[in-house]
Amino acid sequence: MHEHEIIEKATILIVDDSPGSLSLMNCLLEGDYIVRVASGGEKALKIAASDSPPDLILLDVMMPGMDGYEVCRQLKRDPRTRSIPVIFFSGGSGMEDRKKGLELGAVGYITKLIEPVIAVAFIQQQMALHATATSAPRQNC
């Protein structure tokens, strides 16, 4: 690598109303990524639609006001944000919760009870898949 080359870090937006969860995930991800946080859905939607959108959104389901499912619905409806991968990160681990999140367009659903290193590995995998998909030339089918 030449001294003039700058490697840009990908940006992850963590959306959660729990300060503890925000702090933990921020701590786990901040070395490898630029981490932005939002404590609610409205703020998350504004950040996602900004001139500097995140490369991935880690989204809690259960939040006061607008829940994560509604945030995901709105992200996937908006042409500016629909291609941002969303991973639900929630305490709910039932099959219906996971199914609903995936049906709304999320690329994954991980529970907060998962080991942190597994969560980070999954996030890194999704970032690599998204980077590959957005850099590959599009072919007409």
Task: Walk me through the structure.
The chain has 141 residues and is of the alpha/beta class. It has a single domain, classed as Response regulator (Rossmann fold). It is built from five helices and five strands; from the N terminus they run βαβαβαβαβα. It has a five-stranded parallel β-sheet, sandwiched between helices. β4 (86-90), α4 and β5 (108-111) form a beta-alpha-beta unit. α2 packs parallel to α3. The radius of gyration is 15 Å and the shape is globular. The N and C termini lie far apart (37 Å). The relative contact order is 0.15.
Could you tell me the CATH topology label: Rossmann fold
**How many β-strand runs?**
5
Q: What's the N-to-C terminus distance?
A: 37 Å
Instruction: State the helicity in percent bands.
Output: 40-55%
The top-level CATH class is Alpha Beta
Backbone structural class = alpha/beta
Residue-averaged pLDDT = 84
Number of helices: 5
Major beta sheet, strand line-up: 2-1-3-4-5
* Annotated CATH architecture: 3-Layer(aba) Sandwich
Provide the gyration radius in Å: 15 Å
Please specify the SSE layout and strand pairing:
Elements: E1 11-15, H1 19-29, E2 34-38, H2 41-48, E3 56-59, H3 68-77, E4 86-90, H4 95-103, E5 108-111, H5 116-135
Parallel strand pairs: 1-2, 1-3, 3-4, 4-5
Helix pairs in contact: 2-3
Short structural description:
This protein is of the alpha/beta class and about 140 residues long.
Keywords:
alpha/beta; 141 residues; globular; single chain
